[in-house]
Amino acid sequence: MPLPWSHDVSELFDVLNPPGFRAEARAQGLTLQRALYEALKRGIVQGRLLPGASLPGSRELAQELGMGRNGVVHAYEQLATEGHLQCSRQGTVVAALGAGVHGSGRAEGHTEGRKGGRASADGERPRRAALSRRSEGFHRLRDPAQELLPFMPGIPALDAFPIAQWDRLMAQSRRHSGSDALCYRDPSGEPELRQAIATYLRAARGVHAGADQVFVTDGTQQALELCARLLADVGDTAWIEHPGYGGARTALLQAGLRLQPVTVDAEGIHPPEAWWAERTPRLVYTTPSHQYPLGPTLTLARRMQLIEQARRHGCWLIEDDYDSEFRHDGPPLAAMQGQVQDAPVVYLGTFSKTVFPALRTGFMVLPAAVAEQAAGVIGAWAPRGHAIAQRALASFIAEGHFTRHLRRMRQLYRERQVALREALATHWPWPGEVLGAQAGMHLVLSLPEVLPDHALCEAALQQGLSPRPLTAYGTGGIGGFNGLVMGYANTPAETMVPLVRTLASVARSLA
Ligand SMILES: Cc1ncc(COP(=O)(O)O)c(C=O)c1O
Q1: DSSP 168-190
Q2: 250 C-alpha to ligand 1 centroid (Å)
Q3: Looking at the predicted structure, is the pLDDT value of residue 110 above 50?
Q4: What is the atom index within ligand 1 of the atom nearest the CA of 361?
Q5: What is the mean pLDDT of residues 92-98?
Q6: Which of 92, 158, 185, 458 is the residue whose CA sits 20 to 30 A from 505?
């Protein structure tokens, strides 16, 4: 049984970070047993795991972290020997720490460091510089040193981007821009780009948007940070899909919101009716067009329910429309934001999938009623830059290169996906269900129990393949998953058969 990372164990979830646990251990050069020992000890001495808190059984925890049970048993034993844990037949709990144990931990930890870095007048030892307590729960989502490998999710076809065209537009933008482009720029974004985005969104996505409602951001994650600060206060509740987008989890947590994971089914995000009153959210983060990563499309009935309940409870819906342009089974569906007049929806989009990720450009569309006030607040936070690139992007959209590129990519991604599915149907030895293939740049292949996704991905990486384990997308809710998230957009169709064969042989040797 996978662990339910519900409220009572969510601190443990943050301490261990199961989705990134194995990668983190590898990055630090630790064995999984040592990494578990270190993480638990840190959580205890820093007071994040409180005396009396129960830890999961070794079998369940081993399964959740994708490691051997013996490693968990040995880590628990070592911590018990040191007085951090008490193990009995009833289970394993965090021990009440003696002054010595606690004191020594705190001297190394964040608590004293945060009091300041200076020695006090009475000759106390200088305190160590340390990050804030809330910073400690965060882990790198993507290893920047990792090379691009087949099946890595979220990467568009980089070699198919019209780079010569882009270079021309950048040079033109530079030539036509005066020295004002080198100064601090409007934090809401360049007017031409805001206009081009609004025009595109109205025509292609049915979004109700005037240029003054569009705010250019450094991508979706930054847009989410802005949303959290603009629309919610520290301690407010945000609902997030489970499984879901780790970038959203990070942004919302970092803004000091309390996360409530909400399960996803075949019709999209599915909050229990009673939660609207009992766990009333301030924000609901959702990916209606193509749920990330499982893939269902949020049904019209669910969209209407969400909007109605959000209105009733004074809550904001955040619609992340990250890959809706790539619909493979018909024309793209209209965005939720435009389906009801004046819906309490903030619409987010990104150019990371449709142009290229290094552009670091996305946008949010705020309802007209709050856009002007928000512009003032955003203006007080930080000025924006990159005027030349923003103007080049505006021309790329306005001159039709953007829609042409999207048309080509839709066709290319469809071909690549068909090739991947055919290769799986022929060369994958297990009857795996394929999910979420109607849209986007990735699909999900469900795995049999004999193939834990973490272990398979780890072994596949040794062979130069980089699908992501579905369990890595857990956001703390109930329900276990076992599958591969396989990106196909950046992988040529003719390579799918040999790549799937390699994956299958890795899997056979594991099973
Ligand atoms: C669900 C989702 N939204 C948005 C993004 C894009 O984020 P950004 O614009 O910060 O690159 C991603 C990237 O993988 C994603 O998976």
Answers
A1: HHHHHHHHH--GGGGS-B-TT--
A2: 12
A3: no
A4: 9
A5: 77
A6: 158
Evaluate: CB of 19 within 6 angstroms of ligand 1.
no
* 156 phi/psi in degrees, rounded to 5: -75, 175
**Rounded Cα gap, residues 139 and 151, in angstroms:** 22
320 CB near ligand 1 (under 6 Å)? yes
Q: Is the pLDDT of residue 8 over 80?
A: no
Cα 223 to middle of ligand 1, angstroms: 10
Atom of ligand 1 nearest to the CA of 292: 1
Q: Are 375 and 212 in contact, with CB atoms under 8 Å apart?
A: yes
Here the tokens at position 79 are 């911590």
Q: Residue 295 in contact with residue 265, Cβ under 8 Å?
A: no
Over 80: is that where the pLDDT of 479 sits? no
- Residue 154 CB less than 6 A away from ligand 1: yes
Peptide bond connecting 4 to the previous residue in cis, omega within 30 degrees of 0: no
How confident is the model over 298-333, as pLDDT tens digits? 999 999 999 999 999 999 999 999 999 999 988 778
Output 203 or 113, whichever has higher pLDDT: 203
Strands (E), 457-498: 468-469, 483-487
**Residue position matching structure tokens 């950046």:** 490
CA nearest 21: which of 2, 40, 8? 40
The whole-angstrom separation of Cα 419 and Cα 150 is: 14
Q: Tally DSSP H helices, then E strands, for the chain.
A: 18, 15
322 close to ligand 1 (CB < 6 Angstrom): yes
Collapse the DSSP code of 255 into the 3-class scheme (helix H, G, I; strand E, B; otherwise coil) and give the result.
Answer: coil
Mutate to test the pocket of ligand 1, among 286, 292, 485 (most ligand atoms within 8 A of CB): 292
254-275 pLDDT, tens digit each: 899 999 999 999 999 999 999 9
Identify the residue whose C-alpha is closest to ligand 1 atom 7.
Answer: 220
Q: Which helix (H) or strand (E) holds 62?
A: helix 58-65
